[in-house]
Amino acid sequence: MVTTDQPSKPDIIRYLLEQEGRVMLCVDATQERVEVPRRFANDNSLRLVLNRQMPQTIHVGEDALESELRFGGIPHYCIIPYETLWGAFNPDTGHGMLWPDTMPNEVRQNYWLSQALRQEGGFEMPEGALKQLQKLREEQAAASGRPQLQVVPSDGPASPPAHPTDQEPPPERRKPTLRLVK
Q1: What is the pLDDT of residues 42-86, one digit of tens each?
Q2: CATH fit for domain 9-118, picks 3.30.70.1400, 3.60.20.10, 3.40.50.720, 2.30.30.220
Q3: Structural domain boundaries of the chain?
Q4: pTM of the model
Q5: Nearest one of 103, 81, 91, 74 to 17, comparing CA atoms
Q6: Long-range contacts of 38-42 (CB under 8 A, 24+ apart)
Q7: What is the rounded CA–CA span in Å between residue 108 and residue 46?
């Protein structure tokens, strides 16, 4: 059996920053040692984009990546331990690497399903499984407390309602005048 040494996570990040200019990090922010803004602490697929043109220093250490990142314009000092990093790639070219062994289970299942679909050319989901999936999504939406969008089937092609203002020409506008009041 031939084994090949894969480059380390810090080496991949350094290469992408130095050679390609950008790197998107896929992080499991639910892990304890991750330092990101509190509102992202429950995100197991947090994506952070780093650019070599960033004015702040990006420290690619042996155990973690550290930098002051901006979230909605607000700076936050972030620490990303490598054991929580499950992907690093250039978002423009797709060059990079995934580490399935450090992916959260939910992300890993979605990843393997998408790979299987890509290889097989897709599949049709049985009716019962589709209903179970919809029920699961509804439960997750209720648990998150956030409203969710859903597709609503229609009886036929929708046509925009007729507005009487669309049919009538707009009233003629007069030239503005300035009046001096004493």
Answers
A1: 998 899 999 988 888 999 999 999 999 999 999 999 999 999 999
A2: 2.30.30.220
A3: 9-118
A4: 0.59
A5: 91
A6: 40/71
A7: 14
